[in-house]
Amino acid sequence: xxxxxxxxxxxxLWGIADDLRGxxxxxxxxxYMLSFLFLRYLSDNYEAAVQKELGxxxxxxxxxxxRVPLAIWYANNPDDVADFExxxxxxxxxxxxxxxxxxxxxxxARTQNGELLNTLQxxxxxxxxxxxxxxxxxxxxxxxxxxxxxxxxYEERNAKLCTxxxxxxxxxxxxxxxxxxxxxxxxxxxxxxxxGSGKKAGEFYTPQQISSILSGIVTLDSQEQKTGKxxxxxxxxxxxxxxxxxxLNVRKRMGPHGIGKIYGQESSITxxxxxxxxxxxxxxxxxxxxIFHGDSLKxxxxxxxxxxxxxxxxxxxxxxxxxxSFRWEPTEAIGEDVRFxxxxxxxxxxxxxxxxxxxxxxxxxxxxHGHYSAPxxxxxxxxxxxxxxxxxxxxxx
Length: 397
Description:
single chain; alpha/beta; two-stranded antiparallel ribbon; 14 helices; globular
């Protein structure tokens, strides 16, 4: 799919959202829309793997969109289901039950089936707790299928969900469902919903132009830039990752196998869940990334608090686009934090400076009269696994 078609897909989905959300605010409707897009991707990817695995045994149902091939196979082969799911899980890293596939959900929506809402609740719970080897607890925690905003009675909520899903299904039929296409549409919608709720898209993801520059910097060979891009990065960290777009841009430059593992931290529960979905939507396996829900300012992530220098995690690249001039409340206790004790605390109106010091403590001499001489906004850091003082020295002039 070319760029124009990808843009058109985003506009088509946004048009559907704008028409259907009614009195519901953009933030609330975003969670439903993006979750359904996520379910569509997981389902299509899973069904493609299943079809390849079953080969000639995959049921053919040409001309009958009401029947889901995998559901037929499950019904005809109940004794083989457990072994089959183990085999598929080894290849695509997750399993989805036939009743939870997008095709099944879309069929319920098309026929205004009264069990749609209950089936969706079961599907979301299964994906969170059983689909993946790694549990994704709380992945759909921001989606309240029992919300009065969908309707006061079960029947009203079910009917509203049927309409939303049916329209999304119809809008998606003319477009490809590959990871890049749906991933791009996902980020387009995040930006549109942010604007619709009076927020800036930058609260959720780094604009592509900035991402492209930063990812280009950190993927260059740090020892000899003329040689171009590094062949491999073992690990990349974004300590204020938002919905993960900057990390994904680094991965795009390195190729699908160019990074050993991606790490991210995000304090907002909504954006944290968007980031986890975004990683999977772009074709990453659950073993290839780790996103932590926590506040970098408070040093919530135990992994990054490791006191033993020999065990402290090191990263081949660190990128971030922290919130600009975000306010915070420095306290005496925070001043004793090992990350700040020898370097001082950033001003109340400059939490972005504090985020930088938290990850890369500034060497002595880089602080002048209580001010920090670090004219940066987004942080790209590459190293041959250099220590944090070397990294800070490079960017604190």
